[in-house]
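Can't paste images in this forum, so I'm doing it all in text. The chain is below; anyone willing to post the predicted structure tokens underneath?
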Amino acid sequence: MSEEQLQTETMADYEEHFDDANPWNRVTEYMEQGTVLPVKVEGIVNGGAIAMVEGLRGFIPASMIDTRFVRNTEQFVGQEFDAKIKEVDPKENRFILSRREVVEAEAAAARKEVFSKLEVGSIVTGKVARLTSFGAFIDLGGVDGLVHVTELSHERNVSPKSVVSVGDEVEVKVLAIDEEAGRVSLSLKATTPGPWDGVEQKLAAGDVIE
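Text version of the structure:
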């Protein structure tokens, strides 16, 4: 190999290494490959937060920091979480990160796992997530199932808040599953004794009762 060829190959290797060492090349590669990156929020600016990647300042818009819009982004300062790079503009020294997409993917995986374990007729444990006029939503660990007001109690015309409270851990029976629509129908009263349960041990023909 001639000296000229050796110098040419050495220069090519150097340029390739130089390109790989360019942080803008790396963040662009992360974006193209959809790489999930651990980032730490360093500060807050108007409209979002700043996080560092490869020594570069990335911007996380408030609309992309969570699955819901966050007005007070100060709460995320100092927090570490996973994010994806969604846009890179080296000429403007700017790139945009999104945590929302990662959270949504994790939630989708959690929902799929929960649905794979649910069976109609089974008894499961969940936590009361929220109450509405028509029932209570129970968090089953990534999927919210609905206990309709008619399935809350054996008593009639009850309000959800008179039966359960947000944060309560309850056992419920699975009545129906619609994974495509993301719906699970539950019953609380089906896991509690009804007014007629055991009546044959309490009453007998000819008994005088009030």
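The chain has four helices and ten strands. The chain has a mean pLDDT of 85.
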